[in-house]
Amino acid sequence: MTTFFITINMDTLTLESVLYVLLVSTILGAIISSIFVYTHKKTVYDHSFSMTLLLLPLVISIIIMLVSNNLARAFSLAGVFALVRFRTAIADSRDITYILSAVGIGLASALGYFGYAVIITGFISFLLLMLHFFNFDKDHTNHAKLKIVIPENLNYSDVFNDVFKKHLNGHQLQRVKTTDFGTMFELTYLIKLKNDTDQKEFLDELRVRNGNLSITLSSDYVSLTSE
């Protein structure tokens, strides 16, 4: 165990120490990237993000090694990052966990704490897999956003109340918007479906009321929080 936790002095860079850092950070980055791909294999995700996770520990390690204990280099690097603006939108906030994990692994590798970097990677990977297998990262609340288009002559205040009472545990009218030059209303509801609700039956009953006009039901977090 003592041999496993041995660290390399990175105060003075040598070819051997740099190669060790690059190799370890790349391998551990590949592990984090593989965990991300495995836990997202049943969902739609950006495949370039998995490549980013693979390379991020390596890039972080290189930056830390170059900066080292030199204050002037650190300020120069801060200036460079101030000029370069990153505007990549994170579709799933859970992906930030993978990014921060990759950064932490890169830092540990660059400081020469290879044994600790391996343990950190193993522990994070185990935790992410457990969250995936036990579905702790899934939304079990049945929340959804419902958009219904109705004719202007239809009173929207209580036209769907009986349908909502049958299929929902709760609902809230979030927004009313006129469309098609005022000939239509678009109603936006935040709803909570009952566990035994048949979505097709629910939508069919709504279509009868709104004259078979457009109905949109979405349950992903981005749709729930967006307008």
Can you describe what's shown?
It is a single chain. The chain has 227 residues and is of the alpha+beta class. The protein folds into 2 domains: 15-133, no CATH class; 143-225, Alpha-Beta Plaits, CATH 3.30.70.1380. It contains 8 helices and 4 strands; from the N terminus they run H-H-H-H-H-E-H-E-E-H-E-H. It has a 4-stranded antiparallel beta sheet with strand order 2-3-1-4. A hairpin with a 4-residue loop joins strand 2 (168-179) and strand 3 (184-193).
Helix count, per DSSP?
Answer: 8
N-to-C span: 55 Å
Category by helix and strand content: alpha+beta
Q: What's the average pLDDT?
A: 82
Query: Which percent band covers the strand fraction?
Result: 15-25%
Strand tally, please? 4
**What does the largest sheet look like?**
4 strands, antiparallel
C-alpha geometry: elongated
Q: What Rg do the Cα atoms give? A: 26 Å
In short:
The chain has 227 residues and is an alpha+beta fold.
Task: Identify the notable features of this structure and list them briefly.
single chain, alpha+beta, Alpha-Beta Plaits, 227 residues, 8 helices, elongated, 15% strand, 52% helix
